[in-house]
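Reopening: structure tokens for the phosphoric acid mono(formamide)ester complex, inputs below.
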Amino acid sequence: MKHFVSMKEKSETEILQLVKRANVISQKGVKPLTGQFFAANLFFEPSTRTKMSFVVAQRRLGMEVLDFMSDISSVTKGESIYDTARTFESIGANLIVLRHQQENIANQLAESLSIPVINAGDGTGEHPTQSLLDLVTIYQEFRQFNGLKVVIAGDIKHSRVARSNAIALSTLGCQVYLTGMNDWQDNTLPFPYISMDDAVEIADVLMLLRIQHERHHVHQTFTEAEYLENYGLTIDREARMQAHAVILHPAPVNRGVEIDTRLVECERSRIFKQMKNGVAARMAVIESLLNQGGNYSEENFNKRQ
Ligand code: CP
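Re-run output (same inputs, fresh job):
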């Protein structure tokens, strides 16, 4: 694996290997990498979880973290993303983590740079490390993916999390369903839309999405309470979920909108577990990109323990 910019190009085997490796790391930890490695975290959009869990992952792996704040960087003097990334490559960064509002930008950088690029979210494009941590969380629950019914619920059209997860879950043999307002449906995704009332009854995994207000061009006329009632996870709907079913949300959560605030930490919620798994998932990706995780055969998974 040279870069980690999309779930599209990943085979079932590649995804499963990363999931299992991240799961091992989450349970047992891992030794620091051998040698000195610098990571450049280039975040041009706000982030709490992704940015900070990359920092924790990098430090746990013994990497030097080159923090970057776009608002006091030479980007404010007009420097391009390409020249910024090339600068980090030139001064010795071994890895670039990029979050940016422009879809496909991580792919473009990956084609131009000789060091690995990780997509930490590109506009409405993809968010593959979020998907990986979601998959780790599902794996810890069910130990396999084949045939699981996963419903992705909410602002599908504007969600990079929805896109990466729909692709990866389908590659892994899950039955993927979508649910949400008509205006926010994305018909480029080849999965059936169902109602939220049906979703809660069939889902093994209910994956809620944040409303992406920052990507909307049309002012919404509904109230938060109306959205929750029509499309969100209410107390009544949660009560109709299967006993074994779990709730995921990439966060940040709009409490009382996508989900009743009383359900954010309910028994079947895995929302904070997802965040915890984010560190291990990102460690597994970095380790693989820096060729420190071996060839990801079963024996190599545990080689560096
Ligand atoms: N889930 C996620 O990407 O959160 P942040 O925007 O806080 O990184």
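The first strand starts at residue 38 and ends at 43. The pocket of phosphoric acid mono(formamide)ester is lined by residues 47-51, 121, 130, 250-252 (CB under 6 Å). Marking as resolved unless the reporter disagrees.
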